[in-house]
Design brief:
Low-confidence stretches: 205-209
Structural class: mainly alpha
Shape: globular
Strand content: under 5%
CATH class: Mainly Alpha
Number of strands: 4
Oligomer: single chain
CATH topology: Arp2/3 complex 21 kDa subunit ARPC3
Largest sheet: 2 strands, antiparallel
Strand order of the largest sheet: 1-2
Radius of gyration: 18 Å
């Protein structure tokens, strides 16, 4: 049991290193789109959740959220106030709800995929299907919750910062989900299958030795 815990801590440390490396590497973890950023940092969080369980996955999600908080504080875009209480743009400023947006969805990205994967395996014992659905589900957890919270807690400020009428903000939110969220989810599903298949096979082989 001690060896297993040590092994898990080593794996968590490696995932943390990958997340931080992606966060500080330009155009890798956070891809600037001018008005916002697309991200693929959620992928190691999803994989960590599936391989290490929801406790460690949730911690990796917290690290993901922390990198987002720091990135939006020190390298902001026009809408960074929704992700950090330490940044303001004119009359728009972040607050407590910024912390909810930046951390809660990301922590859940480290929890939800584990249960999706386990649930899918019980329904149909097919690793490829289970991993793919878990990857897509984890990615959409991030996108849907972040954009929903932005609409709920910062609707008016977000609309003004993006220079769109408040009446059309819902459509803007939907377009962001479609343009950013769906491709991110597809990529997450494909990479989760490809990477987890190898890692699960390696882990099982190591356990049998």
């Amino acid at each position: 049991m001690k060896n297993t815990k040590t092994s898990d801590l080593v794996k968590v440390s490696l995932f943390v290193a990958i997340i931080v490396l992606m966060a500080v590497t330009p155009f890798l973890g956070y891809i600037p789109l001018g008005f916002t950023r697309a991200t693929i940092i959620h992928i190691p969080v999803i994989i960590g959740s599936i391989l290490l369980g929801p406790k460690y996955g949730g911690f990796l999600g917290f690290v993901f959220g922390l990198t987002s908080l720091l990135n939006n504080t020190f390298n902001p875009t026009v809408t960074s106030f929704v992700f950090t209480p330490f940044y303001s743009l004119g009359t728009y400023s972040g607050n407590f709800w910024s912390l909810v947006i930046v951390f809660l969805p990301r922590i859940l990205v480290g929890i939800v995929p584990y249960y999706i994967y386990r649930g899918m395996k019980k329904v149909k014992d097919n690793d490829v299907l289970a991993l793919g659905v878990a990857g897509v589900g984890g990615s959409l957890t991030n996108t849907l919750l972040v954009m929903s919270f932005i609409y709920l807690f910062f609707g008016q400020s977000y609309a003004q910062a993006k220079n769109v009428p408040l009446s059309t903000l819902y459509g803007v939110i939907i377009s962001v989900i479609a343009v950013n969220g769906i491709p991110e989810a597809i990529v997450a599903g494909i990479l989760t299958i490809a990477i987890c298949k190898v890692l699960i096979k390696y882990t099982n082989a190591s356990t049998l030795e």
